[in-house]
Amino acid sequence: MSARTFPGGIHPAYHKLTAGSPIRDLPPPAQVVIPLHQHTGAPCQPLVQKGDTVRKGQKIGDVEAVVAAPVHASLPGKVVAVEPRPHPAGRDVPAVVVEWDGSDATVDLEPHPDPHDLEPTRIAEIIREGGLVGLGGAAFPTAVKVRPPAGTVIDTYILNGAECEPFLTADHRLMVENPQSIVLGLRALMKAAGAPRAIVAIEDNKPDALEAMAAATRGMPGVSVEAVHTKYPQGSEKHLIKALLGREVPSGGLPFHVGVVVSNVGTAAAVGELFATGIPLVSRVVTVTGRVREPANLRVPIGTPFSVLVEAVGGFNGDPLKVIAGGPMMGVAQYSLEAPVVKGTSGLLVLGPEDRVPEPTSCVRCGRCVESCPMRLLPLYLEAYYRAGMIEQTEALHAMDCIECGCCGWVCPARRPLVQSIRLAKLEITARRRRAAS
Amino acid sequence: MKLVVSSSPHLVSPESVPVLMRQVVLALLPALVAAGYFFGPYALFLVVLSATTAVACEAAWQKATGRPVSVHDWSAVITGILLAYNLPPRAPWWLAVVGSAFAIIVAKQLFGGLGHNFINPALAGRAFLLASWPAAMTSWVTPFDARTTATPLPLLIPKGQELAGVAAPAYRDLFVGSVPGCLGETSALALLAGGLYLIWRRVIDWRIPACYLGTAAVLGWVLGGPRGLFRGDPLYHLLAGGLMLGAFFMATDWVTTPVTRRGRIVFAVGCGILTVLIRVYGGYPEGVSYSILLMNLATPLIDRYTVPRQFGAQARKPAASRGGR
Fold first, then answer.
1. Which of B69, B311, B321 to mutate to test the interface with A (most CBs of A within 10 A)?
2. Closest chain A residue to B311, measured at CA
3. Residues of B33-66 as b/e, b for ≥16 C-beta within 10 angstroms?
4. pLDDT for B157 beyond 70
5. Is the minimum CB–CB distance between B12 and chain A shorter than 8 Å?
6. Domain B17-161+168-304 is of which CATH architecture?
7. pLDDT one-digit tens code per residue, B250-283
8. Is the peptide bond before A233 cis (omega within 30 degrees of 0)?
9. How confident is the model at residue B228 (pLDDT cuts 50, 70, 90)?
10. What is the mean pLDDT of chain B?
11. How far is A359 from chain B (nearest CA, A)?
């Protein structure tokens, strides 16, 4: 039986080295660096200052904005600095640095084990206060996602367990080991969004996850578990919706425009923990993999520096070439191991010298980028126009619809920096639009 | 510790340009074997000479103009082989040299090298040779015994005139390639084997040969008969002349053909129409190379008018959300 999928995409080598490695708790590090901006939206303002003592789960940053999520102390201890620090996104961001006091002092927690008894707005409020954002990478505030504009009808909630990025297995292990949290989270999310139906979508290369989720959701009205074809980027929310429901999210639109909300299974697990125990988002599972001695799935406090993760898996295996926050297709290359795990960090991937991308040669117009583009764009022309300074042409060819999945760059036999050019074109288009508006 | 920072994606497919080009060379080998078998060692010598000339010219030109030498990408080898495949089996050796040099220097390097030429270099070389030395380019020989003869293709001309003394060859001979013709074009069997390999390895888009051959067969049947419409012989049109070579190896050249799916179909159908029109109504007996060259010229235009609708384009946002921005 062929599983559901979408046109386009690629089949890279999956390298799921840690698919069978149980999640292991990382002992708390001496210090955590908690950036005040870990989500899509407005950055938080600090609620603590240097010298303060904080407990685990204490809110240490928040902002009065619709699209935002507060941040919490992931370890109890003393605030030793509130200052700009390296952030995995690539620049310094204000952060609260907490020195662990060796205790387990936690704020008073208020569990809500049965979210079904709560009003949707109350659920969204709890989710917001819990600091929940999408844990798949984009880090969009979950409370905003589950409460789309008035008048929008959500008919389907999709839980994204595709995990199509090569190397990453954090979601896979969560589904196998902790399906109960995911299910509790899903119930809260469905209630908040008013969705009568939910689909848990998992790539068909994870039969154990499919089985675990099917068992955990058995008997839940309106919830089904579906296998989707193993193909990158199956986990792109637009393409998951296309594969499962046949609906295309309109250009420039969001899933709620077609009556759908999509959340990562990791997000649902964190929501589940929040409702079961009251603990806000202070830790997450990170796959530390690639050229390290003992690749592993680690549950780590938010704010753990990458250097601690590398140490925890026995160090580098040979000389590292790149250290990537996320997967190889969409992850961000790091310039410093001081950057910490943030809410959106799904993996830490180390590549070696043999993984160096060769120098680009001339485009041979083979059309592989066109064939593979899941957004049906023409990457070779977007790049050529961008390099020629013809920004209007890149806009006319829908550069803004690019999801930066990296399929074109992966298939390009001439190793053209297609995604980089398109990304720069998008920045330029955005800047011009802003200038035109002002 | 020094870390490399660059844009995603951080890994690339193992299929680089040289890897893919080598697949094309591999796919051209069955036709080379057929050429050696039917037309003897001199045919093989022409192919080797032509390929060597192409590589040497590319390297020399790039050295002389101070550009990085890129012959390791194997594209010049392909151009050299394809040019030789378009020569008569007993063509003088210098035709291969001149044609190859023209293809590489004039048609390819003068326009900027691989990826920038707007017409197929091998076909440009062939057109140049045909215009300059028409007699040498149309001196055909029979397979095995190399007697001077005519190609089977003029038999397609439906003007009623029979070519004295030349009987139409059997389909079987046309299929395996034991007929007169250019040295690499006669064996449909060998070309099909190579072409299907390239489709299987996804080096070329199946749409181009499928639409090209399909259009030529249908139109050959409609227009190709000696007495009225719908009396032509589609199988003969498919197997004779350079159609197989053109459809699998020339019309599929990445650089000079459209990149969009619809564009490739338009391109291939256009090639099929022009081929049959030239064969049936034109002054030349064979129309494959000129039809592909003409369609090469239309490639930028075709790409421009066949831009696919992007994901989410046809859908409209519900009214509720439209005021948001």
1. B311
2. A375
3. ebbbbbbbeebbebbebbbbbbbbbbbbbbeeee
4. no
5. yes
6. Orthogonal Bundle (1.10)
7. 999 999 999 999 999 999 999 999 999 998 888 7
8. yes
9. confident
10. 90
11. 11
At B37, the amino acid letter reads Y
3-state secondary structure A242-280: HHHHCCCCCCCCCHHHHCEEEEEHHHHHHHHHHHHHCCC
Q: Are strands B148-149 and B140-141 parallel, antiparallel or unpaired?
A: antiparallel
DSSP tag of B321 = H
Cβ contacts of B75 on chain A, cutoff 8 Å:
364
**Could B9 and A247 be called an inter-chain contact, meaning their C-beta atoms sit closer than 8 Å?**
no
Angstrom CA distances, B110 to A10, A153, A255, B71, B101, stand at 35, 60, 50, 16, 12
CB-nearest to B259 from A250, A251, A367 is: A367
What secondary structure, in 3-state letters, does B184-234 show? CCCCHHHHHHHHHHHHHCCCCCCHHHHHHHHHHHHHHHHHCCCCCCCCCCH
Q: Which domains, and CATH codes, for chain A?
A: 24-109+280-354 (3.10.20.600), 115-277 (3.40.50.11540), 368-437 (no CATH)
Work out the angle at residue B276's Cα, subtended by the Cα atoms of residues B271 and B281, and round it to the nearest 5 degrees.
130
Q: What is the pLDDT of residues A264-288, one digit of tens each?
A: 999 999 999 999 999 999 999 999 9
pLDDT score of A19 more than 80:
yes
DSSP of A116-162: GGS-HHHHHHHHHHTT-B-TTTT--BHHHHHSPSTT----EEEEEE-
